[in-house]
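Mods, move this if it's the wrong board.
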Amino acid sequence: MNDPPPTPPTLPSAATARPQQPEVETRAQFALVRVHQEEFFSGPLPPPDLLREYDKIAPGCAQRIIGMAEKEGDHRRTIQRWKVKGGLAARTRGQYLGWSLALVIAGLGACLIYSGRELTGFGALILAIAPLATPFLLARAEARQQADIADALRGLIEHDDEGQEDTLGEQQQLKP
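Not the wrong board. Structure tokens:
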């Protein structure tokens, strides 16, 4: 029998050679990190570090910023002063006008009573006195209500204090 001749062993080429080690997959992993930082300040002036930076960029800028803040503060105080004075003047003017109107109506009521129209005259007097007395009566009622609330709160506090003392006494008794 004719057997084919044995083939000599061949070395594997580099293209077909496989490593004998287990296959390990390596991947490069990258993380993208974004840092976001914000700084806020409120008020007429920036923080001192920022003022220094402004002064480095434009010499004298910090002084101008401080001067602007001072002027703005003066202006704001002037406006507030005008508002307060205007409010007081309007309130005072309203009180004078109210009293004047009340006196005119009371005088009219007195004239009506004198002329024999007592019912109409007393109505006019009540109409004159009621707006003047109402704020005093309301203030008294509000003061009474505030006093009642304060008494109720005082009672709650005293009741709560008594409960705390009892609790502390019970805890001390439980300890051997």
